[in-house]
Write a structure and sequence with these properties.
The chain has about 190 residues and is mainly β. It is about 5% helix and about 45% strand.
Length: about 190
């Protein structure tokens, strides 16, 4: 069982899903250092356009579609050139924005895999049918991915491993858990 990517809410096929956050400018010709939420994803290099969505500051909520001129690997980021972002000042103006692609542009997955954005909002329940809460987000760490499940009394961070997670049924909007033993409600 493996989650791929991340997002804030469960998207419809026509919705834009954040793939990366823009860091600092790279060089003087308008390249951006984009930090993907899923380091294994190559989707940003495969799409023709992205939605640039500002998520904080005075430009919060502002968004516009733009063509992707090029994407190449950098040391710890992707170096992205967007159409119309032609110098360092223009690249600095995009710092902090999310680069989003349409959910329908995501490639098919192998058996046992799911996109994190598709499980947000799913009901989490134990194998005996007891409702635990709702999947709020997925946190990716180098050692393990965690499902963050909101409950009436707090939240659980549940390792996305077979010992805790029995099944993930994206179509039904359900995550079935084997146990909560050893986990703290925070």
């Amino acid at each position: 069982m493996r989650a791929v990517g991340a997002a804030l809410q469960k998207p419809a096929p026509e919705d834009w899903v954040p793939l990366a956050v823009v860091g600092r400018a790279h060089g003087v010709r308008g390249e951006l250092r984009a930090h993907p939420f899923d380091r294994d994803s190559h989707l940003l290099a495969e799409v023709d356009e992205v939605l640039v969505r500002f998520v904080d500051g005075e430009r919060r909520g502002e968004a516009h579609e733009v063509s992707v001129d090029s994407v190449r690997p950098g040391n710890d980021a992707l170096l992205v050139k967007l159409h119309g972002v032609d110098d360092r000042d223009a690249a600095d103006d995009v710092k902090g924005a999310h680069l989003c692609v349409k959910r329908s542009d995501f490639p098919p997955l192998a058996d046992g895999e799911f996109y994190a954005c598709d499980v947000i909002g799913a009901q989490a329940l134990l194998v005996d049918g007891t409702v635990v809460g709702v999947v709020q987000s997925l946190q990716a760490y180098p050692s393990v991915d965690l499902l963050v499940v909101a409950t009436e009394g707090g939240r659980y961070e549940i390792p996305l491993v077979d010992a805790y997670v029995d099944t993930v049924d994206v179509a039904a909007g359900k995550v079935t858990l084997r146990t909560l033993d050893g986990l703290d409600l925070t």
